[in-house]
Amino acid sequence: MRKIFIIDIDGVICEHVDNEHPELMSSAPPYPDSIRKINQWYDQGHFICFFTARTEDHKKATRDWLDKNGVKYHQLILGKPRRKEGDEYHYIDDTPIRATRYKGVFGDMVKKTKDVMVFEND
């Protein structure tokens, strides 16, 4: 079954760069293990979409960085709402989804049971 991976950029495939420092985006140190895993998923036929809080003004620097670092992907979506301290992202869809929080290492995907927030049924 093909997976659609929606992946952040800063702090996931490279060192985190704030939008306030766009001059650092083209030289952000890459995370080779993350890139290797994402390229592996791409080569296995999965769909790779980067969804980032970087803006349209950062599009060229972002694409150039991805190309320079050999990152394989299908789609780049800019303008993800910026999270402030204490905020949470909630993704709502009518199809089955899985959310995975990145904690510094891409490993193999395994099934685990965790508490999740769901809509209460009437």
How do you describe this structure in short?
The chain is 18% helix and 10% strand.
Outline the structure in words.
With 122 residues, this protein is α/β, with parallel strands linked by helices. The protein has one domain (1-122): Rossmann fold. It contains two helices and three strands; from the N terminus they run βαβαβ. A three-stranded parallel sheet has the order 1-2-3. β1 (4-7), α1 (32-43) and β2 (47-51) form a beta-alpha-beta unit.
* Number of strand elements: 3
CATH architecture title: 3-Layer(aba) Sandwich
CATH class: Alpha Beta
Tell me the major beta sheet.
Answer: 3 strands, parallel
SS strand fraction: 5-15%
Order of helices and strands: EHEHE
Globally, the shape reads: globular
Fold topology:
Elements: E1 4-7, H1 32-43, E2 47-51, H2 59-68, E3 75-77
Parallel strand pairs: 1-2, 2-3
Features:
single chain; 122 residues; alpha/beta; Rossmann fold; 3-stranded parallel β-sheet; 10% strand
